[in-house]
Design goal:
The protein is an alpha+beta fold and 382 residues long. It is built from 13 helices and 18 strands. A hairpin with a 3-residue loop joins strand 12 (191-202) and strand 13 (206-208). The mean pLDDT is 95.
């Protein structure tokens, strides 16, 4: 690309969710398909290390909701400037506008790369070309093809942390509405497979936001397998059905002479009320004391089970990360070196590892990159 770090600049909606404060044991639980592969890498360079590195180069951080670290300035550009300062202080020669065309391999040993028709010879090459998400930033999947040509197995790349498309117009009617502290459940062929609690948003095409993105990794795979997927939203996850029913009865009794439209304001955001009422087929002009037991049960059910049939997902152009990549079975977890080509290393999204939102994916990149780089430096053939 024409400049460094374009993808880093868009992380965290331009704020850069640097990393997460979870301990290693908890951290790896948020990584798929096998977070344990990273235990040695995390032991070598972890969240406290990247924070200390950034602080030494002028970036102060703040710990926010969900144990997420952000720069105090809320600018991802400050993180990029600090990393570039660190790199340039080590006299690293960065070549922009260079496309790697070929890995130079002889007798299963790396000898360098060819880029823009020029050979760059080296006993060590680290592939950190990213996945296929946000291809406009440079990660267009070409790294996977180079890895295949080198003899590596590549787990089929899929969009991950990606928004979901829904059937019908219910989501569109709620477009722009942001919900907090709700629970989203993914049902596959009539069975609940996963759930996530937190924040979500309705869009013109369907569902998005942190909890939807978290579920999307599993949903994308199920859709590719032609399974029927529904996302069911529990708007009141802090209450079980009996507790919520008791609360509804109490509110209806307390406001018996008021119109149902007014009582809905106690339960729902204003923009959701007309859509909710339409879905229930309840006359919102009737008084609360006229709401039947059957109608109350319908309200209860919808508050706990607002369902959406999933018709698809957004493309790599909008996916935050990529799942899939070079198989971890073919990479040394203690060095990040290829088990197939001597001197070839992998880092970041090139590897078949991806994680939930919350700074986990960037930490994978830092830790694998650090371990790969240090492994090269320890090799006397450098």
């Amino acid at each position: 690309m024409k400049r460094e770090g374009r993808k880093l600049l868009i992380t965290g909606k331009g704020r850069c969710n640097i990393t997460n404060n979870a301990p290693i044991g908890e951290f790896i639980k948020h990584i798929y398909p096998d977070g344990r592969f990273l235990r040695f890498a995390f032991s070598s360079f972890f969240s406290k290390d990247i924070i200390e590195l950034l602080k030494r180069h002028g970036v102060e951080v703040v710990l926010e909701y969900g144990n997420r670290y952000f720069p105090v300035s809320n600018r991802s550009s400050d993180v990029l400037k600090a990393l570039l300062l660190w790199v340039k202080n080590h006299k690293v020669d960065i070549r922009c506008n260079h496309r790697v065309e070929e890995l130079i391999i002889e007798n299963s040993t790396i000898k360098g790369v060819q880029a823009n028709g020029q050979k760059f010879l080296s006993n060590h090459v680290i592939m950190a070309t990213g996945g296929k998400s946000y291809p406009a930033t440079g990660s267009n999947g070409e790294g996977y093809e180079l890895a295949r040509l080198a003899g590596h197995s590549v787990v089929t790349p899929r969009p991950a942390l990606v928004s979901l498309e829904t059937e019908g117009d219910l989501a569109q009617k709620l477009q722009g509405l942001n919900l907090k502290d709700v629970k989203a459940m993914a049902w596959v062929n009539g069975r609940k497979k996963a759930e996530s609690i937190g924040e979500m948003i309705f869009t013109h095409f369907g569902l998005s936001g942190p909890i939807i993105l978290t579920l999307s990794r599993m949903v994308v795979g199920e859709l590719e397998n032609k399974n029927k997927v529904e996302i069911v939203i529990d708007l009141k996850p802090e209450l079980d059905e009996q507790q919520l029913d008791n609360s509804l009865i109490s509110d209806l009794n307390e406001h018996g002479n008021k119109k149902v439209a007014n009582i809905f304001k106690l339960w729902l955001p204003a923009s959701m009320i007309p859509v909710f009422a339409e879905r229930l087929h309840i006359d919102t002009e009737k008084e609360c004391n006229q709401v039947s037991s059957k109608e109350r049960k319908q309200i209860l059910h919808l508050l706990k089970n607002l369902s959406f049939k999933i018709s698809g997902h957004r493309s790599f152009k909008e996916a935050i990360i990529t799942s899939g990549g070079v198989s971890t079975k073919e990479i040394s977890k203690k060095t990040m070196e290829s088990k197939i080509v001597e001197g070839l290393y992998f880092a970041g999204e090139m590897i078949d590892l991806d994680a939930e939102t919350g700074g986990y994916n960037l930490q994978i990149a830092y830790s694998t990159g650090w371990l790969a780089g240090n492994s090269c430096m320890k090799d006397k053939t450098l």
